[in-house]
Write a structure and sequence with these properties.
The chain is of the alpha+beta class. It is built from 19 helices and 22 strands. The chain has a seven-stranded mixed sheet with strand order 8-7-18-19-20-17-21. It starts with 7 loop residues before the first strand and ends in an 8-residue tail after the last helix.
């Protein structure tokens, strides 16, 4: 063993969290190896061409106001590709009518009930029930509760079905009766402890209304989100290159065990496994694979159980390209959401070439539309073949927009088990995972399973995991402990 060699860190998982962890680990002189079991890097970030236009297959935007995402983009040398949306005005396709999505709302929780009324999303009875939030006494909650029960107690079930549930389905592919209020709406959960009215709590989180009308207001709102002109799917390769790490694909990690001086990972097929020794390990994989890798660690039983308790939802994205002339009227806004109670297979639609001007510029004669299908409990829908899913998406789009004829090009992307479900008790599970993992020297976790499924949130967990590992390595170096690699 060469005690003068820099310590080695193994990062298990080559999605954006794992790659970001590798990037942040370069802050110290360490040797980093990223091990990705699939044939490609990037996890749920990928880009390919539809009708000759580069369009994201997975996540297509990130929050610009969180610096983690834009900071990593700049550090990876892609600052020149950052692009703002042309519009963020969305609608809801409710009861076969497209109605505006209220602007002053937090994940469907309205901050302005007069604006909600003007949008005509709720029935008269539903709106009257929603207004009761302003006069009802505070709704007591002890520990964590599901979103539907708490929000329904304040505004009534119609607002949950028509506004909250579609937004949660768009983000988590989950259902409000299962998802944790504390985990999915942490800012609102905190603010709601200071207000009896949930609308007032939402209002406290909103910026003041923009005084500038028209284009100035639209520009201010558009800065909420950003993307890359080449697609967010180009980010993983750029981060991998900037990290300087050794990156291996088709390198499935099958076992993880402690050694006297560190860790040993069993990598590759069951017929021809190889071993890799490391001084520290970052697990940047979903809950179930992480739980399996912790199976050989008796002290991590609590973490294994909590990780195994995180359910995941599958979904599919059907991207359709039509000649602009196929639409009877120009597409307006960024797209629309669809309440599950209306029974449509599509849960959300993005007018990609309207939302992102660079896509429109790539071919002004072509309209690119992205349809999202699949919520928790809709596994049978996703068992249909690609052609059938594309027909369902095109039929729904035709009903909502009046588009005529078939698409010029179609792409179906399936994301099996892609979205962790932050169900009731999620924060407690995460706390138990981190406590148990923290007791294992030189081990850390990161990814979408913990503090948020958006790109900036994943990057934040990667930064925390890298910081934890580097602190451990520095402490070992200060104590004169040599690495455990042979």
């Amino acid at each position: 063993m060469d005690s003068s060699a820099p310590p080695r860190v193994a990062v298990v998982g080559g999605g954006i969290a794992g790659l970001a962890a590798a990037f942040f680990l370069r802050e110290e002189p360490v040797s980093v190896t990223v091990l990705e079991g699939s044939p490609r890097l990037g996890g749920k970030l990928a880009v390919s061409r539809v009708a000759g236009i580069a369009v994201d297959e997975g996540a297509e935007a990130l929050l610009a106001r969180r610096p983690e995402g834009t900071g990593l983009i700049r550090a990876a040398g892609l600052a020149g590709q950052l692009a703002a949306p042309g519009t963020t005005a969305a609608r809801i396709w409710s009861r076969n009518q497209l109605v505006p999505l209220p602007r002053r709302q937090v994940m469907g929780i309205p901050a302005d009930l007069d604006e909600l009324a003007r949008g005509r999303l709720l029935s008269a009875a539903g709106l009257a029930r929603a207004r009761e939030d302003l006069s009802l006494p505070a709704t007591r909650r002890g520990g964590d509760v599901d979103v539907a029960s708490y929000v329904g107690a304040r505004f009534g079930p119609e607002l949950v079905d028509r506004l909250v549930d579609p937004l949660l389905a768009g983000v988590y592919a989950g259902r409000s009766e299962d998802l944790s209020f504390e985990a999915t709406l942490p800012g609102l959960a905190e603010e709601s402890r200071r207000h009896a009215s949930l609308a007032e709590a939402a209002g406290a989180l909103m910026p003041p209304p923009a005084p500038a009308p028209g284009a100035a207001r639209a520009a201010a709102e558009a800065t909420i989100f950003t993307t890359l002109t080449g697609g967010l799917g180009t980010l993983p390769a750029a981060v991998a290159a900037a990290s300087g790490a050794e990156v291996l694909t088709r390198a499935m990690v099958r076992e993880l065990e402690r050694t006297p001086g560190g860790w040993r990972l069993t990598v590759g097929s069951a017929h021809a496994p190889e071993s890799l020794d490391a001084d520290a390990v970052v697990l940047a994989v979903p809950g179930q694979p992480a739980a399996r890798l912790l199976a050989g660690l008796p002290g991590a039983a609590d973490a294994r159980a909590a990780l195994a308790g995180i359910a995941y939802a599958s979904m599919a994205i059907v991207t359709l390209a039509y000649p602009v002339s196929s639409f009877p009227r120009p597409l307006e806004g960024s797209g629309y959401l669809v309440p599950a109670v209306d029974g449509h297979p599509v849960k959300a639609v993005t007018f990609s070439s309207v939302k992102w001007p660079h896509l429109r510029s790539a071919d002004p004669a072509m309209a690119v539309v992205r349809c999202s299908l699949g919520r928790v409990g809709e596994e049978r829908l996703l068992q249909r073949d690609d052609a059938d899913l594309a027909r369902l998406a095109a039929a729904d789009l035709a009903t909502a927009t009046g588009v005529r004829g078939g698409p010029a090009d179609v792409r179906v992307t399936r994301w099996g088990g892609a979205l962790p479900q932050y169900t009731v008790g999620h924060l407690g599970r995460v706390e138990r995972i981190r406590a148990a993992v923290g007791r294992e020297p030189g081990l850390a976790v990161c990814g979408a399973a913990y503090d948020g499924i958006g790109i900036p949130a994943c990057i934040a967990t990667a930064r925390a995991a890298a910081t934890q590992v580097l602190r451990y390595l520095r402490e070992n170096r200060a104590a004169g402990v040599t690495g455990g690699r042979g």
